[in-house]
Amino acid sequence: MGAAAQPGIVVLISGSGTNLQALIDAVKDGRIPGCIRAVISNRPGVAGLDRAARAGIHHEVINHRDHGDREAFDAALMTGIDAHAPDLVVLAGFMRVLTPDFVGHYAGRLINIHPSLLPAYRGLHTHERALKDGVEGHGCSVHFVNTELDGGPVIIQARVPVLRDDTPDILAARVQQQEHRVYPQVVRWFCQGRLTLADGQVRLDEKTLHTPLQVEADTPLDA
User: Fold this and answer.
1) Catalytic residue selected from 59, 67, 84, 114
2) What is the pLDDT, as a whole number, of residue 217?
3) Is the pTM of this model over 0.90?
4) Is 1-106 a domain of CATH 1.50.10.10?
5) Where is the active site (predicted)?
6) Pairing of strands 201-204, 195-198
7) Which of 24, 145, 181, 205 is the most exposed place for a label (fewest CB within 10 A)?
């Protein structure tokens, strides 16, 4: 099957793009049977755009500062995304709260990764908050996006231990290793037609996931 016949992906970023790189690598080595058609950033000059350029992927900036309000920016962003006719829109460190119109437009084909075990620690500074609370476990979650902040049905969670000498940066690095494992896996499932959202519920291999899949750092992932 040629690349033109593969599911198309648009990745939205705001920063360094480490999860973008994990997706680029997974497409390149065949783990993701899809094509990243475009990378769009709401901020100019970020490292994620350089990653896309090195991979030969179309990349562009739609700067939120060029638009008068959130609705106007999201409308421009939708136009930019739809020019590439994606099957899936992936938020990879995209630091914007999206409007209901945007979320509705991509319902069932819009996913995000968040550095916590949702619903715990929605929003920012997740690692600092986890350490302050003294939790024994932390991690990341991949979820379909709805109109709630870091809300929507969770597909998979990867859990890491919180160690006595952890700092926010050390814990973040441990969590990020798992992000780079599970995000390409979820995109793989979607591109294979195995992952869908139906009536607000996650379905994988035609079975409803009543609770998110749970993996540990050493858990082999489904091929």
Assistant:
1) 114
2) 82
3) yes
4) no
5) 114
6) antiparallel
7) 205
